[in-house]
């Protein structure tokens, strides 16, 4: 499922800088904590049936809110989620129009969302920021903070003017690295040369007259010291891609708004095979 307004571009060749993945700052929840709410009266009709995959009963259909509403069902005791962090969550998403579940991560891998409204639905960000790791949060998302600007989401069966209800279990949060850091690795001879400027824009120079490789080549340039990237995780990376035959750059996160790292899942066939193979097993940094 894609909650982000901009899809990650598939690359033919790429110089990739891992900026962060996985999660840290985890915290335990307290099931006896009293529920707290922030403008949550709109969610008073929603009930939660716990289980391996929680189910939501909206109590009324259609469910509609004009302003995104947040209710803390169970307060956690971990670190406070801040804007700009990468947040790992399990979620259940329900369409307010018909009360049907549109998607869930329960029984699968948790999803990592950047707490940045330019990269993910504003309603999700409003549900995560200022909450504690370990919390269970219920969010009533207005169409404006949902899929209205995207004209709905056909894959999920959500229409542009649908309000949404989302249950979030906040598992962990971390602040991504600003740029690659670790131990410099000397590349093998004959590979493209890479120079990275202060804005994390990589210039990739193809060796003159060199034939394009017929097999995948994975060459770390800086070996990070963070956690190892695992299949099924959502990582955050800055990248630049060029076409081997022309040396022409066709995409770079440096040219995206704010030059921020792009989040995407690896190891599950949702990006090009080279990224699934080349990024799984690398270390953050």
The strand count comes to: 17
The termini sit apart by 26 Å
Poorly predicted runs are 4-37
> What string gives the helices and strands in order?
EEEEEEEEHEEEEEEEEEH
Q: What is the radius of gyration computed over CA atoms, rounded to a whole number of angstroms?
A: 21 Å
Q: What is the number of helical segments per DSSP (H or I, 4+ residues)?
A: 2
Shape: elongated
Question: Sheet with the most strands?
Answer: 7 strands, antiparallel
Mean pLDDT: 84
Give me the secondary-structure category.
Answer: mainly beta
Share of helical residues: under 10%
Q: How large is the share of residues in beta strands?
A: 25-35%
Describe it for me?
The chain has two helices and 17 strands. With about 280 residues, the chain is mainly β. The strands form five sheets. Strands 2, 5, 6, 7, 8, 9 and 10 form a seven-stranded antiparallel beta sheet that branches. The longest helix has 7 residues.
Write the layout of secondary structure elements.
Elements: E1 14-21, E2 36-38, E3 47-49, E4 55-57, E5 69-74, E6 86-95, E7 101-104, E8 111-114, H1 122-128, E9 136-141, E10 164-174, E11 183-184, E12 193-196, E13 202-205, E14 222-223, E15 234-242, E16 249-252, E17 262-265, H2 273-279
Antiparallel strand pairs: 1-15, 2-5, 3-4, 5-9, 6-7, 6-8, 6-10, 9-10, 11-14, 12-13, 15-16, 15-17
